[in-house]
């Protein structure tokens, strides 16, 4: 008869996500995971696989719960540009807030640390970015159709520019102690929507 697990795998995965998010992949050892999760090494391997597989599961978990407001805000009926502007300003404000600034975004952190040489992480990062770009694109298409955005503006190119800006805001916000840097960049980018 199989033994039941003596720990909650969901709680352990959340704890692993917290640790990886705070320290990054390379700086987190299996010993750190054992201590932080309160779960034996053999149980971690049996439940989640190796450290890399656990990291991927943590990244997936983060992506599942990633800002549910995005769809709601960018798909709400009515004018679309105010929602796009509010989103950009919210990202800039979060990037300049001490708690958010120090941890950053787990997807962005993963892109910077592992994306260039880890195809599994790069795929997950790309999927996250595609989802955000798609939401922005749809909102900008609505804005152009509603006359909020000049007819000559390319919603796809603007969505891509905003995606890159938002990721850059997260990186710069994490490393900079000057909140005006990200706020000013966000406001300048928003002038392209006029």
From TrEMBL:
Coiled coil: none annotated. Residues 6-66 form the HTH tetR-type domain. Pfam families: TetR_C_13 (PF16925), TetR_N (PF00440). Residues 29-48 bind DNA. InterPro entries: Homeodomain-like_sf (IPR009057), HTH_TetR (IPR001647), Tet_transcr_reg_TetR-rel_C_sf (IPR036271), TetR_C (IPR011075). Keywords: DNA-binding, Transcription, Transcription regulation. Transmembrane segments: none annotated. PANTHER family: HTH-TYPE TRANSCRIPTIONAL REGULATOR YJDC (PTHR47506:SF1), TRANSCRIPTIONAL REGULATORY PROTEIN (PTHR47506). This is TetR/AcrR family transcriptional regulator.
């Amino acid at each position: 008869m199989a033994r039941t697990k003596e720990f909650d795998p969901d709680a352990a995965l959340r704890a692993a996500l917290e640790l990886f998010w705070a320290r990054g992949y390379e700086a987190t050892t299996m010993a750190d995971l054992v201590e932080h999760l309160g779960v034996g090494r053999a149980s971690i391997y049996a439940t989640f696989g190796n450290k890399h597989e656990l990291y991927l599961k943590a990244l997936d978990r983060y992506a599942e719960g990633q800002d549910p407001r995005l769809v709601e805000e960018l798909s709400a009926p009515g004018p679309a540009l105010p929602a796009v502007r509010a989103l950009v300003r919210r990202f800039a404000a979060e990037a300049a807030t001490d708690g958010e600034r120090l941890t950053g975004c787990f997807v962005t952190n993963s892109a910077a640390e592992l994306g260039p040489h880890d195809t599994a992480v790069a795929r997950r990062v790309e999927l996250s970015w595609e989802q955000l770009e798609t939401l922005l694109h749809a909102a900008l298409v609505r804005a152009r159709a509603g006359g909020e955005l000049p007819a000559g503006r390319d919603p796809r190119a603007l969505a891509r520019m905003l995606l890159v800006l938002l990721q850059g805001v997260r990186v710069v916000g994490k490393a900079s102690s000057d909140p005006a840097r990200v706020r000013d960049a966000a406001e300048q980018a928003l002038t392209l929507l006029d």
